[in-house]
Specification:
The complex is a heterodimer of chains A (298) and B (438). Chain A has 298 residues and is mainly α. Chain A contains 13 helices and two strands; from the N terminus they run αββαααααααααααα. In chain A, a hairpin with a 6-residue loop joins strand 1 and strand 2. In chain B, strands 1, 2, 3, 4, 5, 6, 7, 8, 9 and 10 form a ten-stranded mixed β-sheet that branches. In chain B, helix 2 links the parallel strand 1 and strand 2. In chain B, helix 5 packs across helix 14, helix 9 packs across helix 19 and helix 19 runs antiparallel to helix 20.
């Protein structure tokens, strides 16, 4: 273990350090702590849309959430969606990264092609998939019909869920791919070559050397992807299914938006965002506490 | 130095001229008319601005209807409210309850001394946007209602007379079935805006309450009534059509227009405002009819319900500006302007004069079916059950309507249970609105 060293020991240096981190603090305070504080505060009130009458209701908004079957359902939907999206996007990205790592011809083109979807904005990604799977005349709908599958995600909740999982994963694969590829390239070739000389096959090398050495990257991506699926997939859900049919794809973050900005129920929506914030904090904490122990930092 | 003097001179001149030629009063107008409709709205406003030199209305496209209302509320909270905001019909109760934030149109008229001939409005339009004692709250702008479009070619293929489209649900069922069986279309029937068509307009069309207290017009303590035997019967009927493959479902809003125009479904129920979209998309011979009714219901058909949006005046603007707003409204009401807007957008004319003027111009003969909306909306004098809906948090209630109907279509719930759940969930939303707007 390295000895800890402090670059800024004197008080004057400390002031300088504060100057360096101040901009970041201001930004975080203004764009994170202030709105988050407003949400916490707002969750204890019930008010009309225009803010003309505001009444302190204590924990009433939370009580309503706890008693609401729809909210529990929404939590379940989020769980299914997040878990599937994280597994699918990370799994596929890993496969692609391992393949790209070995590609000799056309490697650059291949890598660029995988990265492109990351540049597409989430709502746009959603619209793209919506057109492909449009029940009236979408290209994929026709192909599926040819295979004997009747596709109508406007009607079938499971199909709607599958569609947003695909759309959200597709979008995230590029990001995961980049990190996995960087992680793979950081693994010393000598280790792998040594194992190969000892007669270890591809799978033996992958499971015994590559995957464990990749674990810091995998762990980082697990945390980032969980947060992505819980918070940033709103645009995709909005564009593809609007939470339907019959709330089959109404994730927690979509419900926050819908109740707040469409339903204009600011108190209830604030309470939901506070709960979501706590869930994500708990999840991240749990990941660091339990999963990180299995991570092998070099 | 001379530069500075010149600058002073220009400054003095501009101050002087400001005193002589008073700058026109500016009026901010936020709306949700996207695409083609944005241009049409801008043209209309420009015509008003060119017609006089005292006021300049500045139209701003703020996105979809729910974005307009959210933006307006944010602006109001920041004390920067625009003068006029366009609010869709389901936002009416929210706006009405915001006393102090809005300026009812009847007050605006009294204060500005500019009178609008409110008696000239078509009854169903005026009643939707008035207080129970008949005082106008917001200025109707783009109104639509539910109508039925049908594929004439598909009807011919099924051996039916396309000039005689039936008026009742049992007959429409037979038509839809024959269209499907003859291969005229893959499906017989599809509906857009199902909550509006199959529950809301369905209720007024059959003169039964959608919710208590005159559908919310007579009090905030209104509760849903859509679990009645008639509603259950209708939803069961639709579910049967769906199970038999005669009806399909392709979305909550206007998505089903495509299902109709690409020939997949032979009959479509949707907004009269979809006329232009159908005209643009359909490559076959088609017609417009009134939405069907159940012949065993006494009093049906009554009248359909309104959709579209109105213009709300935000409170807190000086008198000079309020006069400008009232003048703008007066301009909008002129039969000529009404007629032009009606003809190009497919939205309904608001006044009897405008309707007569359009009729006299021969437009309805040249474009058959364009009058079906206005005719079904004003079929009879509105009753307490049919004059309109005024429910708080209506946007959320619409979501619940859609969700519960989808639960029926996908076989998750039987119709009776779905409608009972709809009432239960809707009433929670209504109770909450009542509590927040005491």
């Amino acid at each position: 273990m390295q000895e800890k060293r402090y670059a800024f020991a004197a008080p004057r240096d400390f002031a300088l350090a504060v100057c360096f981190i101040l901009p970041q603090l201001v930004v975080t305070g203004l764009f994170f702590f202030y709105p988050a504080g407003q949400a916490v505060l707002g969750s204890f009130f019930m008010e009309d849309a225009f803010g003309l009458s505001k009444e302190f209701v204590g924990l009433e908004n939370y009580r309503r959430l706890a008693e609401s079957g729809e909210y529990l359902h929404s939590a379940w939907v989020s769980l299914v969606f997040s878990l599937s999206t994280v597994l699918l996007s990370m799994g596929l990205a890993l496969v692609l990264a391992v393949t790209a790592d070995q590609a000799i011809k056309g490697g650059k083109f291949y890598k660029s092609a995988v990265i492109i979807p990351y540049a597409v904005a989430p709502p746009l990604a959603g619209v793209l998939w919506m057109f492909l799977f449009n029940p009236s005349g979408g290209a994929m709908t026709r192909i599926l019909a040819g295979l004997g599958v009747s596709w109508n995600h406007m009607l079938d909740g499971d199909q709607a869920m599958i569609l947003i999982i695909i759309a959200a994963s597709w979008k995230q694969i590029s990001y995961n791919f980049l990190f996995f590829l960087a992680g793979l390239q950081a693994i010393p070739k000598s280790l792998i070559e040594a194992a190969a000389i000892d007669g270890a096959g591809f799978w033996r090398r992958f499971l015994g050397i590559v995957f464990p050495l990749l674990s810091p990257t995998t762990f980082f991506l697990l945390v980032v992807n969980t947060i992505y699926t819980l918070f940033e997939t709103f645009g995709i859900v909005h564009a593809v299914t609007s939470g339907g049919p019959a709330q089959a794809t109404s994730t927690l973050i979509y419900k926050v938006y819908n109740d707040g900005f469409v339903g204009l129920d600011f108190g209830g929506s604030s309470a939901q965002s506070v709960v979501l914030m706590i869930i994500v904090m708990a999840l991240t904490f749990a990941q660091f506490h339990f999963v990180e122990k299995k991570v092998a930092y070099q | 130095m001379s530069m500075f003097k010149r600058f002073l001179a220009v400054l003095a001149l501009s101050i002087l001229s400001f005193g002589i030629f008073a700058a026109p009063v500016k009026i901010q107008f936020w709306h949700g008319m996207g695409g083609e409709l944005n241009d049409i709205t801008n043209d209309l406003v420009k015509k008003f601005n060119d017609s006089q030199d005292k006021y300049v209305v500045e139209p701003v496209y703020k996105g979809t209807y729910d974005q307009v209302i959210t933006a307006s509320i944010a602006a109001f909270r920041a004390k920067q409210a625009p003068h006029i905001v366009q609010v869709f019909e389901v936002g009416t109760a929210t706006m009405m309850a915001a006393k102090g934030a809005i300026r009812p149109v009847h007050e605006l008229m009294a204060n500005s001394g500019v009178t609008l001939d409110t008696a000239s409005f078509l009854p169903a339009i005026a009643s939707y946007y008035s207080t129970p004692d008949g005082k106008l709250l917001s200025m109707p702008f783009n109104c639509s209602t539910t109508v039925l479009y049908y594929n004439k070619d598909a009807m011919r293929k099924a051996g039916l007379d396309p000039e005689k489209f039936p008026a009742t649900w049992p007959e429409v069922y037979e038509v839809a079935k024959k269209i499907k069986e003859s291969g005229g279309a893959k499906f017989g029937y599809v509906s857009g805006w199902q909550a509006w068509v199959q529950l809301e307009s369905f209720s007024t069309w059959h003169d039964v309450p959608f919710s208590s207290k005159e559908n919310g017009m007579a009090g905030l303590d209104t509760r849903l009534a859509v679990d009645s035997p008639l509603h259950v019967k209708h939803v069961t009927f639709l579910k049967k059509m769906m199970d038999e493959g005669i009806m399909t479902y392709t979305g909550r809003k206007s998505e089903p227009i495509n299902t109709f125009t690409n020939g997949e479904a032979g009959i479509l129920t949707n907004s009269s405002g979809s006329y232009a979209a159908v005209k643009l998309g359909a490559k076959f011979d088609w017609g417009v009819a009134m939405i069907p009714y159940w012949p065993d219901v006494a009093g049906a058909p009554q009248n359909t319900v309104i959709g579209g949006a109105t213009l709300w005046v935000m409170a807190g603007h000086p008198k000079a500006e309020e006069i400008g707003i009232a003048e703008f409204f007066k301009f909008l009401l002129q039969p000529e302007n009404q007629m032009n807007f009606h003809k190009i957008t497919g939205y309904l004319p608001l006044t009897k004069d405008a309707f007569e003027l359009t009729k006299a111009s021969g437009f309805y003969e040249e474009n058959p079916g364009t009058d079906q909306g206005i005719l079904s909306l004003s079929l009879k004098q509105p009753t307490p059950n049919s004059k309109g809906l005024r429910l708080g948090n209506m946007v959320q209630i619409r979501d619940v309507e859609d969700e519960e109907l989808e639960a029926v279509w996908s076989g998750k719930k039987p119709p009776q249970q779905a409608l009972s759940d709809l009432v239960k969930r809707g009433n929670e939303i209504l109770t909450r609105f009542q509590a927040a707007n005491k």
